[in-house]
Amino acid sequence: MRTLKDALSFGDLPASERIGFILFIILCLVFPWIAKGFAQAVMIQFLIFCLYGLGWNLIGGYGGQVALGQAKNVGMSAYTVAVLMVWWDIPFWVSTPLGVIVATVESFILGYFLFRLRGHYFAIATIAVSLVWQQLFINWDWIGGARGVELPLKETPNFIYMQFDSPIYYHYFAFVLVMGAILFMNWFRKSRLGYQLRAITSGEDVAESLGINAHWVKVKAYCITGVFAGMGGAFYAVYYSYIDPFSVMHLELSIMIALMTMIGGAGSMWGPIIGAMILIPLDRYLGAWLGGRGIIGVDFMIYALMVMIISAYEPKGIWGIIEKARRKR
Amino acid sequence: MEMLLPAIISGLLMGMIFALVALGLAIIFGVMNIVNFAHGEFLMVGMYTAFLTATILSIDPLLTLPIAAIVGLLLGIASYYLLVRHLLKGPMLAQLLGTFGLMIFLRYLAMCIFGPDYETLEHGWLIRESIKLGPVVLSPPRLGTAVLSVIAFGIICWMMDYTRLGKALKATALDVEAAGYMGIDTERMRGLAWGLGGATVGIAGALLTNFYYVFPTVGLLFVMIAFATVALGGFGSIKGAFVAGLIMGLIIDLGGTYIGPQYKFALIYLTFFLVVVIRPKGLFGW
After folding, report:
1. Which positions 111-140 of B are in contact with A (Cβ < 8 Å)?
2. Domain that includes residue A27, residue range
3. Separation of alpha carbons A269 and A14, rounded Å
4. Does the beta carbon of A60 lie under 8 angstroms from any beta carbon of chain B?
5. Using the beta-carbon criterion (under 8 Å), do B111 and A125 form an inter-chain contact?
6. pLDDT tens digits along B76-129
7. Are B48 and B113 in contact (CB under 8 A)?
8. How many domains does chain A have?
9. Core vs surface per residue B44-75: b (16+ CB within 10 A) or e
10. Where are the domains of chain B?
11. Interface TM-score (ipTM) > 0.95
């Protein structure tokens, strides 16, 4: 009961944030009715990235651990859903929990060993592990290897396989996932785990001397991050109905998630959403515009510049700037 | 058995270049406890510098070594004063993602200018037919570049041990505050460590151009090898980087021969993973 109340009450936030949140919900609800085609696809992308970002914020923002391997969890879950459907015709609603479990168990095992490391070592180790996974998936013929997996299409739109004839359904499904994630984060920041994790970020040795088992708390947070990535991955698989090791396992995806959260404001409730709101439309529209002109790479250069400027001058991201402005008033 | 000896020799030769690539990373990490994610991209810049000067001026790729070294030096110093100096004030997340941003910036800048194509040099004093010695086939570019990287490594080692500059760098690495009291300009030393890191990796890039493809994303592969090398040798240890470089070369070539070439890079990452989990200090760490 207490948990539910914590998750649903936003009373401790300032009125401006609550208004912003309501505007966000209204925008998401009416968006499919006012925008079609490319804009709608961008919006769904935005929602998926919100989900990834909200999850990464847990370990990367609140936990301060630079984990750069989200893509492998996304990929594992997406592959579980796709492979189960291709080989045994198992519906989305059965394979998704399995996919999320695979992603979470992987996070648990990995976190258990990797959280013996701190800072730079941890970050590099997560990159190393995700590159190993990608290599293995590229060379693993049973799941399609480098060619990837294509999900078979049913003749009629089908709820149990999550195959629809209009993107509106995907939009609302993604929106429900994001809302769930936001409510979870709202609970999390007031929870025991949330306070423990923030205590570890601000001083690991001090936190341990207060009786917090830092290793265990970090492993738990990393598992939750894995759950979020797993849900995003399962959704990705049915939404695109095609996956390969370059779209879901790629290091660039992990980097994008981290950059996005960092730009929006790591360690704040709305940071990942703000980051996704800026980066994803920028990425898709700029990418499409530049790609049409045969220019590649400028979009990534722009994010890189943003990240360099933000990490050098305002490590708390755009949310940090907003908070500073508010405090001055 | 007849595959073993060639694999060992080619592994050791490649390992000498890995050692030179890792050297810059080790210096930077040793002096200021920050990991340069853009290190592989510095290598890529060195490779393109060598490739372009060699093709445009049509000179031997070996003559481009000083140019690549100077470009690397300037790149390193510029990154320190424009970016890294500011990053050091922030939390670890900002430090990591800051150099990460630099890496992405340089990589996509190269992608934007040169396109994603693979390029190779076709002419050069070292680029010639392989020599057969019994069961061993020696490729002259690999042999020559390996010898040159050992020489470059030796010069840096000598500089660190016997010159005033090297001693000042080492003092800064051991204790910044105490080094400051001794009258060492630690800020300059840090900038210099970045310059030195850039210069060594620039040389390594120019050497690699003799036999390796040049393409914008070449950095990721080499930076991961360099991370693994530095972790194995002990972060900040220069002699460790050399021994670990040789071991890495052996792992890649023996793994490529006996397990399968598609897994050889997975093996590198796996080695790194095992090293950091089992012995985070590395072989020679302190």
Report:
1. 111-112, 115-116
2. 2-253
3. 13
4. yes
5. no
6. 999 999 888 888 887 777 888 888 889 889 988 888 888 778 877 776 666 666
7. no
8. 1
9. bbbbbbbbbbbeeeeebbbebbebbbebbbeb
10. 19-217
11. no
